[in-house]
């Protein structure tokens, strides 16, 4: 049975950091969370600095970097494998979709442009990224010709992109989906496909095929731009947009604040009792930066910033850990 209890910790920030923003990304390496991109005003990238938050000392610094420094962007994603962070896509200051893949070596603080142009996935923003031990996966997002439903993997050992078979019409192109690796499968959960979706699909690399699954239990309502993390066979989701704004990305829409967990073995959802409504709970929000990682000895979900129901950008940091 999935863990149905969890706890949130609001993390104090002892120094001034990058501040309030949404549509940004974070990735955790050891006890440091690296933040890149984002917006304070809708669709206007803030900067291209790489900010790092020490999860032990609770101090922000700006990394002095070298190499192929990415330009500012929103709707960007990040994932880490070992000491390397991978950054893909986003939308630039002229609202153009991007498709460059960068790596950042945290041991030497150096950016490297790995691919772009005609190689790799097409241009996109507000897609999703996750990783396993040596692959970085990219799914969906908003492309030049509409919402996408393609799945790609970047093999970090061979330095090559792999395009997986098309998902088919059952998995509609979408932005802001959940993406996670569990049980050796790549899971696509919910997202926005012209409307908020509540379907679940997975791709099985061993079988080289897609499957849509029927889930049961306490199913979350349809949503997009939520936080996602996989811990073992469990996929956790938090928050997200459940009703889009009438003015699209210029507005806030309606957000959820609950945590749910999907047991990918028995395909059952459970609501996690996590203290919704208490002081140290992050509450309803979406468009956050998030990453799975450890704080101290606990494995969980780090959430930084996002957009609030009042359309104000947030700059707080929370850590969620499941409990038995």
TrEMBL record:
GO annotation, biological process: glucosinolate metabolic process; nitrile biosynthetic process
Top-rank lineage group of the source organism: Eukaryota
Keyword Hydrolase: no
Stored Gene3D superfamilies: Kelch-type beta propeller (2.120.10.80)
Cofactor(s) annotated in UniProt: Fe(2+)
Any one annotated GO CC term: cytosol
Protein name: Nitrile-specifier protein 5
Lineage: Eukaryota, Viridiplantae, Streptophyta, Embryophyta, Tracheophyta
Annotated gene: LOC103502104
């Amino acid at each position: 049975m999935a863990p149905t209890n969890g706890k949130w910790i609001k993390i104090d920030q002892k120094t001034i950091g990058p501040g309030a923003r949404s549509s940004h990304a974070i990735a955790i390496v050891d006890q440091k969370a690296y933040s890149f991109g984002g917006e304070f005003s809708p669709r206007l990238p803030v900067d291209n600095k790489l900010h790092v938050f020490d999860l032990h000392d609770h101090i922000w610094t700006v990394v002095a970097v070298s190499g192929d420094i990415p330009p500012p962007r929103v709707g960007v994603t990040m994932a880490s494998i070992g000491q390397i962070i991978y950054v893909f896509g986003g939308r630039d200051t002229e609202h153009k979709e991007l498709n460059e893949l960068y790596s950042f070596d945290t041991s030497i603080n150096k950016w490297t442009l790995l691919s772009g142009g005609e190689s790799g996935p097409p241009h996109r923003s507000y897609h999703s990224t996750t990783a396993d031990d040596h692959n970085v996966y990219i799914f969906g997002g908003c492309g030049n010709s509409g919402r996408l439903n393609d799945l790609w993997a970047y093999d970090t050992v061979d330095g090559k992109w792999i395009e997986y078979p098309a998902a088919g019409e059952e998995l509609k192109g979408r932005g802001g989906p959940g993406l996670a690796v569990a049980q050796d499968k790549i899971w696509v959960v919910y997202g926005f496909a012209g409307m908020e979706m509540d379907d679940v699909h997975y791709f099985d690399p061993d079988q080289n095929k897609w499957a849509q699954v029927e889930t049961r239990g306490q199913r979350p309502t349809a949503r997009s731009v939520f936080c996602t993390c996989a811990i073992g066979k469990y996929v956790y989701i938090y928050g997200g947009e459940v009703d889009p704004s009438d003015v699209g990305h210029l507005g806030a829409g309606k957000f959820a604040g609950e945590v749910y967990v999907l047991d990918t073995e028995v395909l059952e959802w459970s609501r996690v009792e996590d203290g919704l409504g208490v002081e140290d709970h992050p509450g309803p929000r979406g468009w956050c930066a998030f990453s799975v990682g450890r704080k101290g000895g606990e494995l969980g979900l780090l959430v930084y910033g996002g957009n609030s129901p009042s359309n104000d950008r947030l700059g707080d940091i929370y850590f969620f850990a499941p409990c038995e």
